[in-house]
Amino acid sequence: MVDLSVQLAPSHPKGLLLANPVMTASGIFGYGIEYSELIDIQRLGAIVCKGTTLKPREGNPQPRLVETASGILNSVGLENIGVEAVIKEKAPVWAKWQVPVIVNIAGETIDEYKEVAARLEGIAGISAIEVNISCPNVSSGGIEFCTNGISAAEVTKKVKSVSSLPVIVKLSPNVTDISEIASAVREAGADAITLINTMRGMAIDINKCQPCLGNSVGGLSGPAMKPIALYMVYKVADIVDIPIIGCGGISCAEDAIEFLMAGASAVQVGTASLTSPQAALEILTGIERFMRKKGAPNLRAIIGKARS
Ligand SMILES: Cc1cc2nc3c(=O)[nH]c(=O)nc-3n(C[C@H](O)[C@H](O)[C@H](O)COP(=O)(O)O)c2cc1C
User: Running DSSP on this structure, what letter comes out for residue 31?
Assistant: First the structure.
């Protein structure tokens, strides 16, 4: 018998115990409900829902998705139904599920993050909050919260101050020193860290002489991201003592195992679910098979094993 369970918020009074380490990444799995008729979502470790803001957002102009050689570029622009609709329409469904649901939140100001987290307080069906700090701060000229330790820590502290749920902070690779940001959010009280969000990029339609995306620039995801994300997990695992959730280009069980061996305690599957809704469950089966083959009784036998 292989024990795949993992605790992602060991120092939090409520904890965040997952039956297995395979989660879905925000923005690619909707609210989970959309996938519930396609796959057995209850077998997943956790579901992270679409980024949620205080008010509904229409998002960026089309086109919003462009294929690249080894991934996709997106500029969805946080289109979402807003926190009140999530509470009224989605959470009651989640409350009946066994699989934990984590609400990914976003904001344009620190107070918006705080307000969204406050409204989620006490709502049944929500197991944790994941804070997407890759959002422009309108109060400081549109500089993203993720780009410096001070603003990243400030968002983390504000969310923690109003939430009794475990708070996971999701970092961006578009920074000079990921370690500095990881340390700052850890100091500010983050219970876990997700590494990483999309990498900024663009594509140009040479016949139209214009950018392919309606928003001109977007975020790169998919297999091209994997070595970068893996490196960031490996690096950050050296300096923080809270669980890390690896994310970026994970397409098969072997990819996921690399992240675990680099120091991640769990993984999120994003773009791979677009090509196959089964991807996350196939990854889970593959991890279990690998552990049996290696005689690994639990995830502790694998997590961080590639570290010297
Ligand atoms: C279409 C799309 C929408 C996304 N929306 C969100 C979002 O709302 N919030 C967030 O934190 N990350 C969002 N992401 C980033 C993913 O959760 C993930 O961090 C990234 O895609 C890297 O993982 P992958 O290579 O497995 O897709 C989105 C990614 C894509 C492709």
Answer: T
Instruction: Tally helices (H) and strands (E) across the chain.
Output: 9, 18
Q: For ligand 1, what atom is nearest to the CA of residue 64?
A: 1
Q: Which residues of 80-89 are buried (b: 16+ CB within 10 A; e: fewer)?
A: bbebeebbee
Catalytic residues: 135
Q: Write the DSSP assignment of 211-244 as a string of letters.
A: ESSTTSEEEEESGGGHHHHHHHHHHHTTT--S-E
Cβ distance 65 to 42 under 8 Å? no
Going from the Cα of 308 to the center of ligand 1, the distance in angstroms, rounded, reads: 30
Burial degree of 179 (CB within 10 A; 0-12, 13-18, 19+) = middle
% residues pLDDT > 90 (the chain): 96
- Helix (H) or strand (E) holding 144, with range, is strand 143-144
Q: Provide φ and ψ at 265, rounded to 5°.
A: -90, -20
CA 20, chain centre distance (Å): 16
Q: Which two tokens stand for residue 158?
A: 């504000």
Largest Cα span, the chain: 58
Residue environment code for 187-219, b if the CB has 16+ CB neighbours within 10 A, otherwise e: ebbbbbbbbbbbbebbbeeeeeeebbbebeebb
Q: CB of 28 closer than 6 A to ligand 1?
A: yes
Residue nearest to atom 6 of ligand 1 (CA): 27
Residue 142 confidence (pLDDT): 84
Q: What is the chain's mean pLDDT, rounded?
A: 97
> Contact at 8 Å (CB) between 134 and 144?
yes
- pLDDT tens per residue, range 148-169: 999 999 999 999 999 999 999 9
Q: Would you say the CB of residue 172 lies under 6 angstroms from ligand 1?
A: no
